[in-house]
Amino acid sequence: MFAPVHSPSTATALDLLGLTDPDPGAAPTSLLEIGSGSGVISVQAALANCTTLATDINRDAVENTRRNAERHGVTDRLTVLHSHLFDAVDDDARFDRVFWSSNYVLAPAQFSYASMHERAYLDAGYRTHRRYVEQAVHQLTDGGSALLHFCERGDAAALAEIARECGRELRVLRRRTVLEGTDPIEHFLLEVVPVGSRRAWPVAGKAVRDVRGSPASRRPTGR
């Protein structure tokens, strides 16, 4: 887990989701956040009167999210669970939005995590991304959206191939370029949809090709 003040990722995710201000009109009715970290996104959604379930694989992150929910007085509409992806989420639960700001740096498939901090920004063989891309749509209400915050420092081509293998398409909804140190880095809000979906979002075939062509070879030492 990392402090949001040391990385632009959380603030960028809030912006991509339209949650920069706690505006009730900007939030969905219900949200499942995967990997809540310090709880900023889930708390902000709850402040906008969104019924929110926050999950994280890190028990310290779960406790941090819980304390921030108490601090901001939103425990009546924000529940926190210790969970790896959807493991602790009720199979029958449905949400208007499922969101994950992912650990987008691709590590070798045989990589062994030395700490929970490494799990915050590295995904060995993109196994966690594969599960999310395949399973997130099963937790949606009719008309709901499965969203993924990704970054050009991830391997977009590998992610697109995983989506294809899972029978999913990735559609770029929004883009933001932010400075990470002195480097301008492009972030994306992707929607995960089943192949052939007729949802009214703009088809991002060209956008996905643009992401594939971005300088994904640059790898950070941390997130």
What integer is the average pLDDT? 87
Tell me the CATH architecture: 3-Layer(aba) Sandwich
| End-to-end CA span | 10 Å
Multimerization status: single chain
CATH structural class:
Alpha Beta
**Overall domain count:** 1
| Structural class determined from secondary elements | alpha/beta
Beta-strand residue fraction: 25-35%
Figure out the total of helices: 7
Total beta-strand segments: 9
The residue fraction in helices comes out at 25-40%
Radius of gyration: 16 Å
Strands in their spatial order, largest beta sheet:
3-2-1-4-7-9-8
Low-confidence stretches: 200-223
SSE string, helix = H, strand = E? HEHEHEEEHEHEHEEH
Largest beta-sheet details: 7 strands, mixed
Supply the key terms.
223 residues; alpha/beta; Rossmann fold; 7-stranded mixed β-sheet; two-stranded parallel ribbon; 7 helices; 27% helix; disordered C terminus
Summarize the structure.
The protein has 7 helices and 9 strands. It is an alpha/beta fold. It has one domain: Vaccinia Virus protein VP39 (Rossmann fold).
